[in-house]
Model the fold of this input.
Amino acid sequence: MPSVPPGPAVPGGAGPGTPLGQERTRLLLGAYGIAVPATLPAPDEGAAVTAVRRIGFPVALKTTAAWLRHRSDLGGVRLGIATEAELRRAWAELTRQLGDPAELQPVVQAMAPRGVDTVVRATVDPAIGAVLSFGLAGPPSELLGDVGHRLLPVTDRDAAELVRSIRAAPMLFGWRGARPVDTAALEELLLRLGRLVDDRPEISAVELEPVVVAPRGATPLAATVWVAPPPPRADLGPRRLPAY
Done:
């Protein structure tokens, strides 16, 4: 398998294309059965309280600033908030610790079950086509490059092999007595994302990070979809698996 860069890319090194807005991304993914928990902006305490009244407890409060993205070690996430008082306290602590709310861009999000944080990406490479990638979130993929790849389209067998191809895969299957997580739900998510990218040639890249794989279910907590003019293709038909 050719080496694939860790982040999305499009021809010419110009970046992944144009990102869809949050609501369009949520609707697009939802059409393929990939549900992202409800997320609402919380630029101030009042907005945070209004958001949680729409979403319901428990919730997470987190920043969405680019410089804090995927940096949970900096304290930009507060989980399991169960009351309005806790929410107000968390919002005040977050902004006091990290700075101007306008730069932090805090949001309130419905809580997902706890589990193993993973990363799922799809990238269209002009040389080899669409590639589906999977790894665990954090150091395993970012520092060690422990990421698996498969060319699209993928079968259910491909999805199962992709999940098991990374060196850190035992963490999904009850490593050191931990409760195994729902790899069947994760594999289903991979198949759905693969179908989306295969159906929509204007999509240049998709990133789901993190995808929390719990003992029951797999939930993407953040999603970004980029669109760009499709690269030239020599064939005129959709991608298909060969018949055996």
Residues 6 and 111 are 27 Å apart (CA to CA). Residues 1-14 have pLDDT under 50 and may be disordered.
